[in-house]
Specification:
By secondary structure, this protein is mainly alpha-helical. It has helices at residues 2-13, 18-26, 41-59, 66-78, 102-115. α1 packs across α3. It is extended and about 65 Å long.
């Protein structure tokens, strides 16, 4: 799921995610183990395409400070060929409500209320029944 989200960010919003590209370049050694997985091959191929493109751009820069790398990524994203990645259907997420949501939310809300600096409690206050 995380790889699908990363792929969606790269496919649809690459120019707005230079920090994501930076992080992927920094940790590119994490992706080769997933290349052989049949369900992930296309996604990993997209990520590797991005990594190869920006790695080549970074090899052409002299310095490797964070600011210069981010500037190179930003400039590279402007020259990025738009149709170079395989486009997948948009990710869809569905909220499924628990059967008894109050079992989580009521104690959680009361724990927030109990520590709130806005409310003043007189006497002792306990969250236990």
């Amino acid at each position: 799921m995380l790889l699908e989200i990363i792929n969606s960010c790269l496919t649809h919003m690459l120019a707005y995610n230079p920090h994501l590209v930076y992080a992927l370049l920094h940790r590119r050694e994490l992706f080769p183990p997933y290349e052989a997985h049949p369900a992930l091959q296309d996604i990993i191929s997209n990520i590797n395409t991005v990594l190869s493109f920006f790695s080549l751009r970074l090899e052409q820069t002299d310095s490797c400070s964070v600011d210069l790398v981010l500037n190179a990524i930003t400039e590279g994203s402007r020259q990025w060929p738009r149709n170079s990645l395989k486009v997948f259907p948009d990710l869809r997420f569905k909220y499924v409500e628990e059967e008894n949501p109050d079992e989580f939310f009521v104690p959680y809300i009361w724990s927030l209320v109990a520590v709130s600096p806005v409310l003043c409690w007189q006497g002792r206050f306990s969250l236990s029944h």
